[in-house]
Design a protein that fits this description.
Oligomer: single chain
Helix content: 40-55%
Shape: globular
Number of helices: 11
Distance between the termini: 20 Å
Number of strands: 9
Structural class: alpha/beta
Largest sheet: 8 strands, parallel, barrel
């Protein structure tokens, strides 16, 4: 079960399984496992995998398969979906797949659920077929999942085996205030995608805390914020590495996605003022710099948001630089653990 509250901020990883230019999905998956094995040593709490489809830059189309691969190569790290886009799947199938993972790796599996398709509308139609409007069923499908996982479902005509009776934490993922209301009403932990939807973070957190109803799962609100992190030994090197992330987001907003590109000395030739502004808005909650810069910025972020957990996504072209970035982030947060601003007086 999740703790009711955290005495200090936990830190975790969201892996999009980015496909770097010149590499293959197979290379990406090997790097994801190697990264998970390293961050486990660094003290990270969770390693979540996203669900995206029809993207040349992202290989995480089948998060449950990747979760099993990563869980099998680690020992203590919590492995989760960040998330499974529930309208893309029948709740029973999700319950069986996650139940299988939780049976293989007891006490280590998280189920993060999102409403969005994780792709463009044409691909969403191909995935969902006649269930194209299934996003409207998201609240009901979550409750159906909870039923499948409950031991009281043992007398039902339809059961999730494996899955039934297992303690599998369910998280609500979101990028808007709608998800905040739902997570609060169900008394579930809330993970917000501020790494690409920063504008709604603070209103969503306020609504979640205000409307939260305690449940059998959670006595108090628990908030995780996903943010972009690019750390390096110096601020200048981090800013250079971050141009890969900027190019990634430029591809998203321009409708011209490409594999993750190597860093460049200047973005000036790649974007215009309007595109630069749009990318900057999407990346508002990005922490880029050396350890001291990260500590300063993260202290301010923690004090402002009062979050329980930070989940970092680091779209860095070099695998070695990405691992080092996560190492520096862990060191920065561990050094701040004793400082007042990073401790929770209240999560309300």
């Amino acid at each position: 079960m999740l703790p009711d509250a955290a005495s200090s901020i936990a830190f975790s990883v969201l892996d999009l399984a980015p496909i770097a230019a010149g590499s293959t999905p197979a290379d990406t998956f090997r790097n994801s496992l190697a990264l998970a094995q390293q961050v486990e040593k660094f003290g990270y709490t969770r390693f979540w995998l996203s669900e995206h489809h029809n993207m040349v830059s992202v290989a995480s189309a089948a998060p449950t398969v990747l979760m099993g691969y990563i869980a099998g190569g680690t020992t203590s790290l919590r492995i989760g979906s960040g998330g499974i886009m529930l309208p893309n799947h029948a709740p029973l199938v999700v319950a069986e797949q996650i139940g299988t993972l939780a049976s293989l790796y007891p006490g280590r599996i998280d189920l993060g659920l999102g409403r969005a398709p994780g792709t463009d509308q044409l691909t969403a139609q191909a995935i969902r077929g006649t269930r194209f409007a299934a996003g409207q069923d998201f609240p009901r499908d979550i409750q159906q999942l909870q039923t499948y996982f409950s031991s009281t479902n043992s007398t039902s005509a339809v059961r999730a085996i494996p899955g039934e009776g297992l303690d599998i934490p369910i998280w609500i993922l979101g990028s808007s205030t709608d998800s905040a209301y739902l997570a609060a009403a169900l008394g579930l932990p809330y993970a917000f995608a501020s790494h690409f939807a920063p504008g709604q973070l603070l209103p969503a957190l306020e609504l979640y805390r205000h409307h939260f109803r305690p449940s059998a799962t959670l006595a108090e609100p628990y908030v995780l914020a996903c943010v972009n992190v690019v750390a390096a030994d110096t601020d200048a090197e981090a800013q250079w590495l971050a141009t890969s992330l900027q190019q990634f987001m430029l591809g998203v907003i321009s409708g011209k996605p490409a594999p993750l590109q190597p860093p460049v000395e200047s973005m000036d030739a790649l974007w215009g003022p309007t595109q630069q502004q749009a990318v900057g808005q999407m990346l508002a909650y990005s922490f880029v710099g050396g350890k001291a810069t990260l500590q300063h910025d993260l202290q301010q972020f923690a004090a402002r948001t009062r979050i329980n957990e930070i989940m970092a996504v680091s779209n860095i072209y070099s695998h070695e630089a990405r691992v080092h970035s996560y190492q520096l982030l862990a060191e920065a947060l561990q050094e701040l653990q004793q400082q007042p601003l990073l401790h929770h007086q209240s999560v309300r």
